[in-house]
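Field: sequence (string)
Field: structure_tokens (string)

Example rows 1 and 2, in order.
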Amino acid sequence: MTATEASRAAGTAAADRPSGRRADLRQLIRYGLVGGSGVLLDMASFLLLYNVLGLNEQVANVISTSLGITNNFVLNALFTFDKRDRLLVRFLRFYAVGLTGIVLTYVLFRIFSDGLGADPNLVKAGSLPLVLAVQFVLNRKWSFA
């Protein structure tokens, strides 16, 4: 193979691979879809625990968020980040990142529900986009690095 042919072959191989930005975007989309399933599980659990069973909103939040975290870890490990090694360590890191969401939501409940009288259901729903953004960065850089 001549140098020109080798160069063309390398260029073709590089063109076949997704660019860094494209791969990042696909990963973010997968993370969002997995997160969506976790949000649905989290919100449905929260609504059931808080509105039907009458648990305190903080207790309901910890339980519902823990269910969402576990769901998201399994799906992200399999589909988003394609990692199957060191699962216990990764889960503990992922859960630690999930705790940041619990703390952030706790603070928002204290400010908006307790302080301003806002409906806890709305505060919980409103906290989710902020929590998603913070956790994506932390999970990508630490849990699944």
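Row 2 begins here:
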Amino acid sequence: MPKPLPEPTPETQPFWDGAARGELRIQRCVTTGRYFFYPRLYSPFVIDGPVEWVTVSGDATLYSYNISHVPIPGFLDEVPYAIAVVQLAEGPRMMTNIVGIPNTPENLVLDMPLKVAFQQREGITVPVFTPAGVAA
């Protein structure tokens, strides 16, 4: 069974288009210069504030995680797997998966440096993260 796929919307399409090109793109408030994620039509920092899409470094640290031992459709062969929250070097946090290492508490150390990688899933490219210096 395939993994669940995201459904791009007009607000999120630039994020998915960037991922397809191997770029991690998030939004930035034009007025304050502050980055944010999840995609929105207006800045969360300024009422009706304009936003722009920017390509960010893809560097992050592990902020939090939960290791799932329950097999769900699409992840049956990957148990256990981590559902993680990473903090991007630019500031925002993003929910993702950690790949490239066994997902155990011994390997998933909070604040560990991570780097974005990309997985193809049935026609859509999904950003995931791997420990810095480890190929995905």
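free_text_note (row 2): The chain has a mean pLDDT of 94.
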